[in-house]
Amino acid sequence: MKKLIPIIALGCAALTVGAGVLGYFAYSWINPPKESAPPLRTGDVRGKVLTDSGAMTAAGIIVRDEEGNTKRYTTNAWGGYELSLYPGDYTLTFTKGYEFDTVVKQISVQQDKTYYMTDVRLVQLYDSYSEHWIAGDLHQHTYYSDGSDSVLSLALSDASVGLYYGFLSDHNSARGLAEWYGLRHLNTLTDEDGNDRMFTPCEAVEITTEFGHFQALGTSTVLDRYDVELYPEERNAENKDEIIMGRIRYIAECIKLDGGVAQINHPYSVSTMGFNYWELADLFDTVEIWNGVFNPGDGRYENETGYQSQNYKSKLKWYELINEGLYLPATGGTDMHNTSGPGLIEDIALITPENYQSYYTNGGVYSGMPTTYLYLEGEIDQESVLNAVRQGNSFLSNGPVVNCSVGGVVYGQTSAQTGEIAIDTEIFCRDGIESIQIVKNGEAELTVPTGNCTLYSEPIRLVVEAGDWIVIEVFGKGAQYAITNPIFFEK
After folding, report:
1. pLDDT tens column, 111-169
2. Please, are residues 200 and 184 in contact by the beta-carbon 8 Å criterion?
3. Domain end: 398, 421, 441, which one?
4. Residue 343 banded pLDDT, cuts 50, 70, 90
5. Which of 226, 359, 363, 431 has the lowest tally of Cβ within 10 angstroms?
6. Cα separation of 143 and 452, whole Å?
């Protein structure tokens, strides 16, 4: 089978912060010829992506060759693109995340030729931003630690899927944060009234140790290795657990002293990245229950392997903590290390526990998978983002938009109502909603069939008592899923 190998851009990507100028990218996709064949040269495919109102916008392009191989690319900040492709037939799918439609184009490329595509216009099907739900990502990496992307390419990838804020959280490094903050001039979207919606870059560091990973959200906290790593004699000490717990306390305290949100990352990872000291959970502000590297915690296709079930186990532990009286708002993050795809797979006849992980992964583990949507009514800046994260005014999704409330009370808040309540709903999923599930006090209470509609807006009635809490789960097509933070009911 032919192999896809990205090479260094033929064009340039430049950023001038004062003027907010972002340059063009060029890409090359190589199908290496056989050794006996004469060397092939590429052809260039150029064009621009716009919204349906005619505004230029960053977007993603998923390129599929004749063999079915795919790779995801990103336009520049104004929707311009140049693809250098070797001779062959290609399918180009243009996308800007799940709130937009997609446009598919076919092209046959010959070497040494340049092709100018007609403008692609992507139609916005739902606008969560106008409903005060602001999409973003809390967990991303660049080549300043172990990622593949530059700071600029990561930000463009975020904008290309409709994210309006993003945290850069390289491992034990703040080196990229100055560049990241400079991208506050990046425009995610110009709305139909001509208003620019700017990207809000937020700072973070993933404090990475041999006994767990901890997110310092909203701060550039970098700790010296000798403050957090275990010395050789400590690894075999009888009081090793006590030593580790002391290190964890120190990490949480440092993050908070710096004004940040202290988060437990991927707690059920099956390696040293996991978290095994739940007696210290109250030191933290949030917990990542959906890490994008692993299956959604939907529970639909679970098996016995720890790898696939990490997010599901995290969700169940989160329910347990809430019932014990400890509410750590749930977050999701892509744990992005490479924004380039893959991005498309064929539908399969039967999804099983054994193939669900590959189905989910091949469907596109890139920016916004999952997204943490925050409810923000005022200015969007790092402070308001952190406040919404701390309070749990949020839901996590890789497709469905879950705009729900109880008498105006949103996720992370407390309602004074008891008895029969009405959950006001406006749930959108471009590819179809299979069902909605209401979880009460950690147990599935009610399942609402939806007939695979794309927009559900009927009130859901439920009986609650004082002290109850509810979470809304939405199941979309395939691996599409969303889960909210709780709505609480006064005791």
Report:
1. 999 999 999 999 999 999 999 999 999 999 999 999 999 999 999 999 999 999 999 99
2. yes
3. 398
4. low
5. 226
6. 41
Please give the tally of structural domains in the chain.
Answer: 3
| pLDDT score at 291 | 96
- The answer to whether 4 and 71 are in contact (CB under 8 A) is yes
Split at pLDDT 50, 70, 90, the class of 348 is confident
- Opening angle at CA 279, ends 277 and 282, nearest 5: 110
Mean pLDDT within 159-185: 97
CATH (domain of 447): 2.60.40.1930
In this prediction, residue 301 has a pLDDT band, given cuts at 50, 70 and 90, of: confident
Q: What is the mean pLDDT of residues 369-377?
A: 97
Tell me what pLDDT residue 227 has: 86
Peptide bond into 267 cis (omega under 30): no
By the 8 A CB rule, do 219 and 205 touch? yes
Q: Verify that 337 and 437 share a domain, yes or no.
A: no
Q: Which of 69, 93, 122 is the last residue of a domain?
A: 122
Longest dimension (CA), the chain: 77
Task: Label residues 328-351 b or e (16+ Cβ within 10 Å = b).
Answer: bbbbbbbbbbebbbbbbbeeeeee
Distance CA 428, CA 456 (A): 7
Query: CA 378, CA 362: separation in Å to the nearest integer?
Result: 37
DSSP string covering 169-235: --BT--TTHHHHHHGGG-EEEE-TTS-EEE-EEEEEEEEEETTEEEEEETS-----HHHHSPPHHHH
Residues of the domain holding 448: 400-491
DSSP 452: T
The rounded distance, in Å, linking the Cα atoms of 413 and 409 is 6
pTM of the complete model? 0.91
Cis peptide bond upstream of 39, omega within 30: no
Is residue 175 domain-shared with residue 236, that is, in the same domain? yes
Q: Are 63 and 85 in contact (CB under 8 A)?
A: yes
261 Cβ neighbours under 8 A, 6+ residues apart: 215, 216, 217, 218, 255, 285, 286, 386, 389, 390
Give the whole-angstrom CA distance, residue 181 versus residue 175.
11
Lowest-pLDDT range of 356-360, 390-394, 439-443 = 356-360
Give me the DSSP letters along 344-358: -----S---TTTHHH
Q: 390 and 456: one domain?
A: no
CA distances from 150 to 144, 176, 288, 338 (A): 8, 9, 24, 10
Q: How far apart are CA 76 and CA 155, in angstroms?
A: 10
Write the DSSP symbol of residue 406.
B
Indicate whether 384 and 424 sit together in one domain.
no
Q: Establish if 335 belongs to a structural domain.
A: yes
